[in-house]
Design brief:
This protein is mainly alpha-helical. It has 2 domains: about 1-95, Rossmann fold (3-Layer(aba) Sandwich), CATH 3.40.50.10860; about 100-150. Helix content is about 45%, strand content about 5%. Strands 1-2 form a two-stranded parallel ribbon.
């Protein structure tokens, strides 16, 4: 919901919509994940695009999965369309540090909140909910900034 609202305010097509396939990628080969990703992309090709809805990496996806989505979408257009997804490899048009952007944003938000609330950042006790890409990077940056990360949660 928040992603939808904040993107709508600035009129960018990162609507926050979620979609996916129920499977266990931990038990699948790289080839199986590629085939599944490409088939799923073929099914949603008319619902995504640089001016429509731009998928971003989420649970059990990575730069490679996003590259397959971009490639499959691009094949339907007859030319490369890097703007169809975020989180792809830098060599395919992703932003530098794209992988760290969300965690870095959390770090700067916590830092600003501490300043606003007049809470000393150095030594502040911090708990990070989630330890995927965003949470692990945020925890690392918070620790490096001398906050005291006392706990993290890990989803199964």
């Amino acid at each position: 919901m928040w992603m939808t609202w904040k993107c709508a305010v600035v009129d960018i097509p990162f609507g926050g919509g979620k979609g996916g396939v129920t499977c266990n990628p931990k038990t699948m080969s790289q080839s199986e994940i590629e085939k599944l990703t490409r088939r799923y992309t073929s099914a949603i090709v008319h619902n995504i695009g640089p001016d429509l809805d731009i998928p971003a990496p989420d649970v059990y996806t990575n730069a490679q999965v996003m590259a397959w989505i971009m490639d499959t979408y691009s094949m339907t257009r007859g030319h490369m369309v890097p703007g169809v997804v975020t989180g792809k490899p830098v060599c395919l048009g992703s932003s530098l540090d794209c992988n760290e952007a969300t965690g870095r944003g959390v770090f700067h938000t916590v830092e600003s909140a501490c300043e606003h609330l007049k809470i000393p950042f150095k030594g502040a006790k911090v708990v990070v909910q989630g330890f995927g890409n965003a949470g692990s990077i945020a925890a690392h940056l918070l620790d490096g900034g001398q906050a005291d990360v006392i706990a993290v949660s890990v989803y199964p």
